[in-house]
Specification:
Helix content is about 40%, strand content about 25%. The relative contact order is 0.09. The radius of gyration is 18 Å and the shape is elongated. It has one domain. It is of the alpha+beta class. The chain has a two-stranded antiparallel sheet with strand order 1-2. GO terms for molecular function: DNA binding.
Length: about 80
């Protein structure tokens, strides 16, 4: 699907209104949450998974605490 979406002003920010069919594919509804990933090609929207986000937060905390050891292992 390649469909242009209009960027609208929302207070001091901007937003994009997603059509109903895209919301259905994301298993989202107004007021719900979705995950956004950025990469070199652009962005990717996907359904928000609270369990996955909690696991990633725990992994980031461990990586931050063990930064020096992980750097040595990467050599």
């Amino acid at each position: 699907m390649n469909k242009p979406l209009k960027v609208v002003k929302i207070g001091n920010s901007a937003g994009v209104i997603l059509p109903r069919d895209l919301l259905a594919k994301l298993h989202a509804e107004p007021g719900g949450m979705i995950s956004v990933e950025t990469n070199d090609d652009g962005i990717r929207l996907k359904p928000f998974e609270a369990d996955f986000e909690a696991q990633m937060a725990a992994a980031r905390a461990v990586m931050e605490r063990r930064k020096r050891a992980l750097r040595e292992l990467a050599k």
